Amino acid sequence: MILVTGGSGFVGPHVVHALRAADLQVRCLVRDPARSGALERWGCEVVRGDVTDAASVRRAVEGCDTVVHLVAILAGTPEDFERVMIGGGRNVVEAARAEGVGRFVLMSALGTGEETKDLVPYYHAKWRVEQAVQESGIDHTIFRPSFIFGSDGGILPTLLRLVRWSPVTPIMGDGRQRSQPIWVEDVAAFFARSLELEEARNRTFELGGPEAVTWNQLYERIRHVLGKRRATVHLPIALMRKQAALLERLPRPPLTRDQLTMLQGPDNVCDMRPALATFELPLVGLSEQIRRAA
C-alpha cells in the first residue's frame, strides 16, 4: 500500500493516477473529503487527516510500505511554512520510520539547496524536509522539479489567460531569467517509475522539460501557439514588490514578495541527463505543453 499526501492538489491527482494506472494500491490522506471524488473513482482508499496532525498521519501510514509526500504551500507567514511544510513533513517522516516504511518519495523544488535555504521560507522548508528524509534511514528518492505546467493548475493557465485576453503582456523585470517547464504528467511518470528502480534509491533528481527558455521567450511561444499578437511591457521589480506587499493581505495571494525573490534568483534550469539516463522516460516539449493547456 502506498500512502500519498497532497493527493487532491494540483500535482497529486496526476501522481495518484499514474500509480493506479500501474495497478498499485493507493491510500490518500486528504483534509477535505469533498475533493476526493476522483481519487475514490480511481479505486483509492481515502482517509481524512492533516499532515500537521501527527495522530492522523500515524493512522494513515499504518499498513503502508511506501510513502509519497507532496504537501507544500506557496505563500504564507514563516510560521505557516514551519507548521505545514516543516512540521507536517516531520510528522510524515517520523510516522513512516515508526511503521517501517521501505520507500519514501519526496516532492521538493528546483532551486532548493544549501546556498538558497535561507533565501525565502519556501526554500528553507523544502531544504529542511529534504534533510529529514535523508536522515531518516528510509530508502528514498527526492525530486526537484522546475515549474510544473498543466491544464488544470499551476501557473500556465494564468499565463494563457493573460496572453489571450490582455492587450498588453506584462513581464516582470527584464524577462531574461530562464526556466525549464515540465509537463505535470511527466512529473507523475517519474514518481511512479521511481518505485520500481533500484537505481533511483537514495538519490536526488532535478527535473525540467526538454527546453530552457527565458520569460520573454516563453511569452513569445505562448503568443505563437495561441495565434495572438501582443505588445509587451517590462515591469520593474521594485514596482512589483510594492504590489505584492498589498496582494499578500489576500487569503490566497497571486503574488508575494518571496516569490519575486525566487524569480529574481538564479535561472530555474537543470541538467536532465541523470534523470533521463536513470528513468528513460520521454518528455513533452514546451509548445506541446502549451497546446495541451490551451
Q: Which features does this protein show?
A:
about 290 residues; alpha/beta; Rossmann fold; two-stranded parallel ribbon; about 45% helix
Proportion of residues in β-strands: 15-25%
Which topology of the domain at 2-146 and 183-208 and 273-278 does CATH recognise? Rossmann fold
Main β-sheet, spatial strand arrangement: 3-2-1-4-5-6-11
- For the termini, the CA-CA separation is 36 Å
The string of secondary-structure elements, in order, is EHEHEHEHEHEEHEEEHEEHEHHHH
What is the alpha-carbon Rg in Å? 19 Å
Assembly category = single chain
Count of alpha/pi helices = 12
The number of E-state strands comes to 13
CATH class placement of the domain at 2-146 and 183-208 and 273-278: Alpha Beta
Average pLDDT: 93
The coarse silhouette is globular
**What fraction, in percent, of the residue positions are helical?**
40-55%
Class from helix and strand fractions: alpha/beta
CATH homologous superfamily identity of the domain at 2-146 and 183-208 and 273-278: NAD(P)-binding Rossmann-like Domain
- The stretches of 5 or more residues where confidence is low (pLDDT under 50) are none
**CATH 2nd-level architecture of the domain at 2-146 and 183-208 and 273-278:** 3-Layer(aba) Sandwich
Largest sheet: 7 strands, parallel
